[in-house]
């Protein structure tokens, strides 16, 4: 159960590769982020297709939801380091859960493995028991376990919820509906665990959190939820999300733990006869190592949008069009914003780690090891990588523009992160000709970078043309994955629309 490495030696970035990043990728990426910042927001995002609980979900789709939920419960902390991708494959002829995280050291990976084992063991022991516990009992056991491991993240949601509840109470209008909503918000606030009492026993804190999640669940389809949804939609129209949508998001994320335990219980009924819960291994992949501190990946002096668009792939006419669109965006002060964006990034550059995002890391590891991403390697032949967050714009470009893969992922979200990096090449270090292999690996990396560049410039062109940001405030779904309600309470649509506002 050690941390898994890639076979071979990593080929470090050379000066030429650094130059390519400085010239071809990072400026365009920074421009894309800036354009998304300054342009007005587009229409509210549609819920990703995999988040819509569908009573007719096929076994394979249910499995996707299950894998995403496992990834979610391993994403212990906010801020992105623990974002996790997970797949179930046959490794040495044994069902094996394999996951990777954005930035976790070996100790943290071990903890995540421990969490997953404890969760799966709850399901395993119920499957193997002669008298089965009812679902709600198993759900409660899972919930306690999951909230314990996720206490840092859960606390951040509770803190946000507490803050926004106070703000929103103050913003309820004096209509009858508003007065009722204010009372209902106060009732919900009264279920919050005491966030100031640090010395409180964890069990008590978790129990209070469970009650709070129940209260959120009980409010689905209530007049309160409709009131919040309407205010939240107003937030969206104002351009920058506000307290109502923050409230909706925090409540939705807490509720997602309830959906997660329901999905897990459903899965353990569905695949009770397989090894999925009976006889399995758990492995994790080492997170990417930081680039050397002296790697110089962004010019310290800001470039202009015009200069960057001059390097766009395509004809002179195309470049002229892009530059003209950029001039039109002066109404949003593109020049000024872009310069300060660049300066801020140049400052941040030293402390920032560019990382291989979890889904790319896991996918690359599969490719580098025996069996690759061929279907026979996956549980039931289902080529799927689940993630705790929808894949970002850069990962999506990678999977669609740079490589083509039979592996499926969650529906993407349009946010683009500056800490993205292409997967690192590895070569066999033992035999002769290593230098030649390294050279080839670097060439291949440069080809991939060229494709990535084309994808990013295409995204830049789209925003320039449409002058509408492809922007989404939260990168986890406020809508949340869930399989058909196994209790048959017809709750799918209700669960989806409650707190969600659509
Ligand atoms: Zn990504």
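^ Assign residues to that structure.
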């Amino acid at each position: 159960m050690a941390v898994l490495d890639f076979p071979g030696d990593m080929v470090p970035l050379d000066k030429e590769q650094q130059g390519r990043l400085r010239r071809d990728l990072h400026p365009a990426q920074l421009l894309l982020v800036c354009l998304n910042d300054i342009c007005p927001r587009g229409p509210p995002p549609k819920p990703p297709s995999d988040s819509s609980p569908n009573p007719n979900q096929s076994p394979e789709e249910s499995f996707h939801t299950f894998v995403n939920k496992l990834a979610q419960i391993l994403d212990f902390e906010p801020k992105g380091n623990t974002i996790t991708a997970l797949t179930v494959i046959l490794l040495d002829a044994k069902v094996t859960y394999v996951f990777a995280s954005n930035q976790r050291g070996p100790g943290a990976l071990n903890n995540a493995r421990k969490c997953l084992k404890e969760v799966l063991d709850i399901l395993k022991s119920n499957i193997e028991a002669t008298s089965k516990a009812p679902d709600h009992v198993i759900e409660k056991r899972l919930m306690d376990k999951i909230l314990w491991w996720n206490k840092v993240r859960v606390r951040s949601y509770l803190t946000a919820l507490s803050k926004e509840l106070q703000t929103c109470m103050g913003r309820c209008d004096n209509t009858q509906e508003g007065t009722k909503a204010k009372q209902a918000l106060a009732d919900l606030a009264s279920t919050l665990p005491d966030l100031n009492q640090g010395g409180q026993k964890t069990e008590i804190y978790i129990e209070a959190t469970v009650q709070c999640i129940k209260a959120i669940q009980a409010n689905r389809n209530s007049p309160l939820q409709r009131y919040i949804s309407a205010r939240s939609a107003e937030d969206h129209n104002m351009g920058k999300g506000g307290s109502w949508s923050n409230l909706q998001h925090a409540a939705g994320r807490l509720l997602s733990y309830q959906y997660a335990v329901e999905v897990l219980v459903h899965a353990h009924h569905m695949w009770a006869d397989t090894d999925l819960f009976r006889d399995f291994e758990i492995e994790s992949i080492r997170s990417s190592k930081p680039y050397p501190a002296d790697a110089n990946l962004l010019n310290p002096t800001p470039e202009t949008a015009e200069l960057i668009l001059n390097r766009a792939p395509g004809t002179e006419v195309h470049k002229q069009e892009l530059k003209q669109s950029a001039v039109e965006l002066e109404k949003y002060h593109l020049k000024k914003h872009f310069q300060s964006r660049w300066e801020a990034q140049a400052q941040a550059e030293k402390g920032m780690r560019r990382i291989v995002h979890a889904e790319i890391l896991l996918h690359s590891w599969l490719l580098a090891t025996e069996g690759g991403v061929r279907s026979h390697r996956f549980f039931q032949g289902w080529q799927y990588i689940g993630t705790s967050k929808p894949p970002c714009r850069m990962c999506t470009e990678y999977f669609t523009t740079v490589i083509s893969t039979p592996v499926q992922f969650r529906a993407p979200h349009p946010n683009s992160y500056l800490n993205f990096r292409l997967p690192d090449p590895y070569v066999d270090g033992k035999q002769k000709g290593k230098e030649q292999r390294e050279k080839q690996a670097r060439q291949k990396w440069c080809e991939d970078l060229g494709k990535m560049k084309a994808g990013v410039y295409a995204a830049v062109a789209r925003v320039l043309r449409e002058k509408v940001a492809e922007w989404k405030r939260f990168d986890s779904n406020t809508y949340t994955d869930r399989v058909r309600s196994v209790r048959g309470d017809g709750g799918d649509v209700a669960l989806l629309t409650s707190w969600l506002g659509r």
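The longest helix spans residues 434-466.
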